[in-house]
Known about the structure:
Elements: H1 2-10, H2 17-20, H3 24-35, H4 41-47, E1 59-60, E2 68-69, H5 91-125, H6 137-143, E3 152-155, E4 158-161, H7 164-177, H8 194-203, H9 210-220, H10 229-259, E5 265-269, E6 279-284, H11 288-298, H12 301-309, E7 315-320, H13 321-331, E8 335-337, H14 342-347, E9 351-356, H15 364-370, E10 375-378, E11 390-392, H16 400-414, E12 429-433, H17 437-443, H18 453-460, E13 466-470, H19 482-493, E14 496-500, H20 502-510, H21 518-522, H22 525-534, E15 539-541, H23 548-561, E16 573-577, H24 583-594, E17 598-601, H25 611-625, E18 628-631, H26 635-653, H27 656-674
Parallel strand pairs: 6-7, 6-9, 7-8, 9-10, 10-11, 13-14, 13-16, 14-15, 16-17, 17-18
Antiparallel strand pairs: 1-2, 3-4, 5-12
Helix pairs in contact: 5-7, 5-9, 5-10, 5-24, 5-25, 6-7, 6-10, 9-10, 10-23, 10-24, 11-13, 11-16, 19-26
Amino acid sequence: MAEEKVKTAKAKKVADPQKASMDPATQQMILRAQELGVETVFDRAETMKPCNIGIQGTCCKNCAMGPCRLPMPKTGIEGQDERKGLCGATANTIAARNFSRMVAAGAAAHSDHGRTVAEVFLSVARKETEDYKIKDPIKLMAIAPHFGVKTTVEVDGEEKDRDIDEVAVEVAEKALAEWGKPEGELTYLKRAPKPLYERWKKLGELPRNIDREVVDIMHRTHMGVDQDYKNIVKQCTRAALADGWGGSMIATDLQDVMFGTPYPLQSEANMGVMKADHVNIIIHGHEPVLSEMIVAASQMPEMIDYAKEKGAKGIQLGGICCTGNEILQRHGVPPAGTFLQQELAIVTGACDAMVVDVQCVFQNLANVAKCFHTKLITTHPMAKMEQENVHHIEFDEHHALDDAKRIVKMAIDNFNNREAEVMIPNIKSTQIAGFGVESIEYHLGGTFRGSYYTLNDNIINGRIRGIAGVVGCNNARTRHNEAHIKLVKELIKNDVIVLTTGCNGIACGMEGLLTPETAAVYCGPGLAEVCETVGIPPVLHLGSCVDNSRILLAATEVVKAGGLGKDIQDLPAAGAAPEWMSEKAISIGQYFVASGVYTLFGVNLPVEGAPVFKDYLFNGCEKIYGGKWDLVADPIEMAHKMIAHIDTKRKELGIDKARERVLMDMADRQKLESA
Ligand code: NFS
């Protein structure tokens, strides 16, 4: 009896797989983990509840007199808000400080990734490493002028192309200087539509250099500095712009130059991409500098032969999170899952090695790996784990391919050590990924290929109602993938074309939404017609979260092509992160808002405890930037708010009538067909 009591007291609450995820593969593997007694994030979400004050954004722990906690009274605030911390900081100040620190962390994460890429690019340009090459010289020449680097030279009175290596070195040096130059402003800001650039300038919010804007936030939110939430938001805008139009954009561009600009390709998605009879290597994290080499190493005949010697049929790579998206976009390596599936990939019992770099990596992976034969390998000097079963093989661009070969060999050597019964869910979907600014231009280009004119034309004539950027993470506080999928389906049903990145892109791939055939099943008549004509999916996967910079530039191209206003804020467009969880998402949200986009987040936002600050982000910002924040937990309601915004913009542009005509034409046609 006593023993039983102890047992019941110890029995931990576990997740209900059906409630935790909408994805059948994930449900199967949650159950499998529970059968094996392996705890996952889904179970922890049952036992650990979020802090009620932190979630409202009003816990200040920036000095040792606190933490000062200022929750919203249950009855709300009537009249004067008397709440304050020991120093007198108001709820607005505290929430704005916390929010800005999230922007600083997010911008730092994206931009530091960018810095690594720029450093590797400099080594490549200086020919200090043999392992990487410039794969896309055309893109190099296209970005060089933005850094003020000349691409031609005068020889005997004639303009000739400059030597590519010379251009590369100059671009690399100029790019790296963006992190710390002492004067001026970020060079890529001028790529934005002119009115947008001028607005930032007038507001005094042009980022000076990337690092400085992050440091500025940390200083300003230190105890006793900036105590005006509006002024704090000004700075977090600067840091966020330094991310979107700075660190992230440079990361995307230089990765394209070194590893190739993505073009559409076919792949698959979900845990079913793992193969029981292959050596499975799961690549997880964000920086593609090492994963590029792992892809190369795993394709080498000597490695494949070695795998066969050990009894495997070959080597299967799979991605998780945005490193996964990077190698999907450029090499067609299939993602094995989103952020929330990372532990489950190991639970299959078939993961011979999981290689991680930075960001979105659970420390609990080490505990899960301990229950299986999986070798968990950290590779970044910045990201190690305390658990003893974790291996660290530090990446260095000077011997990157050797590092990668060592890792692949380690996985192969581990193939015969599998202990647990292998259980890979037999679930995966086909997908077309690899879109970008360039490929959209190509696929939706006009008769004279190479312009956004046809896309604009289809928006103007109403076949495409508008554009949505749907991005971001999973969050264990909501049902895995459900908000992503419901939102995207509702948007395409209403003729809104979707540009996706990050874990939303993986979720859409898993659900089979990234195929041209999807159009006939899920899209409204207008969008279906366009997709069928040009042979594209209604949801275009643009890559990782740093590749949200591709969405900014695609929007800029739409503005440039004409007919839809003069600025991003004029476009019939909206952005959303329905299952966000990371600080990077807050930085992304702020740079989209500051670029003129109506931006909706799901789950919650840490602003509820400071209603005045919240109102500033949700309403006041629109007058300043043209974009604003919103929070909507229900994905269908979120879709309808986005569509309502798109319709308002169509009306302002005077193109609302065109759409009514298109729809009438369709209805008439259907009537005719059924007659
Ligand atoms: Ni973006 Fe990509 Fe996923 Fe969220 Fe994490 S992987 S960088 S942060 S969880 S979308």
